[in-house]
TrEMBL record:
This is Phenylacetic acid degradation protein PaaY. InterPro entries: Hexapep, Transf_Hexapept/Carb_Anhydrase, Trimer_LpxA-like_sf. CDD domains: LbH_paaY_like. Coiled coil: none annotated. Transmembrane segments: none annotated. It comes from Azospirillum melinis.
Amino acid sequence: MTAPTAFPTLPRPTVYAIDGVIPVIDPTAFVHPSAVLIGDVVVGPGCYVGPCASLRGDFGRIVLQRGSNVQDNCTIHAFPGHDAIVEEDGHVGHGAVLHGCIVRRNALVGMNVVVMDGAEIGEDSIVAAMAFVKAGFVVPPRTLVAGLPAKVMRELRPDEVAWKSEGTEEYQRLARRSRATMVACAPLEAEEPGRGRVDAGTSQPLHKVKGA
């Protein structure tokens, strides 16, 4: 694999204080430089925050606990005096919006989901992509919810919870990979012969796991 023409360092994340409150990023977390963190934001150990995520702690506090991830283009915010929390090993998919809610331990919020104020996504549960979780709705632990508005569909099987955990572990590894190997660089002008692939692990989409 051709080594990249690297610039000296990866730019620092875009971080702003407000009212004297400064965001906190644990040294073992990875926050992409294009993500924006404002005010009362706490990113815990081993977390991953993806490109163009907005964590805006200018009203309520935002907390990402150990090993959680918030992926590309996600938005997290809250009303004054309320918090938005993603607990340990929480997993928030691309483009999701969390507003003043709680994602409990090892829960998954799918792509483009909206979770409203006072809602609680239960431990080990999965919210299907594109769902709308209305204000105050409590998702029971180890359940699948889906729809507009989201409704409980069924209890999750052990293999589905295991699949979720495996995917989160890959994002924890991605935080380490990004800290160790991501550099700002110039693009190549053409694809090189024998082009390598990234070290993406072995996690598979759920429909393939079910079909195995």
